[in-house]
Amino acid sequence: MTDAGVPDTGAAVYDSGSCRVGLVMGRQGPYLQLRPLGGGREWDANPAHVRPATRDEFLSAQLAEVNARSRHKGY
């Protein structure tokens, strides 16, 4: 976290507005730009609704990404 309470770029955070875990990619105006752990389309998040992801939230999001990739590969 920066001194202003904003997560650093690359930090894993939980966005309570979308109920998703993402990586901080930067800022766009008043919003944080977050990207899913496995890559994909970024979304805007209100910084007031973002907090550091817990270990369990981070691991759950990682597992969901791995499972999604395996389903798309036909395994």
Describe the fold and architecture.
It is built from one helix and five strands, in the order βββββα. The protein has one helix spanning 55-72; strands at residues 12-15, 20-28, 31-35, 43-45, 50-52. A five-stranded antiparallel sheet has the order 4-3-2-1-5. The longest helix is centred in the C-terminal third of the chain and has 18 residues, at 55-72. It starts with 11 loop residues before the first strand and ends with a helix. With 75 residues, the protein is of the alpha+beta class. The mean pLDDT is 91. It has one domain.
In short:
This protein has one helix at 55-72; strands spanning 12-15, 20-28, 31-35, 43-45, 50-52.
Key features?
single chain; 75 residues; alpha+beta; five-stranded antiparallel β-sheet; 1 helix; 32% strand; globular; WGR domain-containing protein
How widely separated are the two ends?
39 Å
Integer tally of domains: 1
Number of helices: 1
Briefly note the structural class of the backbone.
Answer: alpha+beta
The amount of beta strand, in percent, is 25-35%
Extended strand count: 5
Please summarize the sheet with the most strands: 5 strands, antiparallel
Topology:
Elements: E1 12-15, E2 20-28, E3 31-35, E4 43-45, E5 50-52, H1 55-72
Antiparallel strand pairs: 1-2, 1-5, 2-3, 3-4
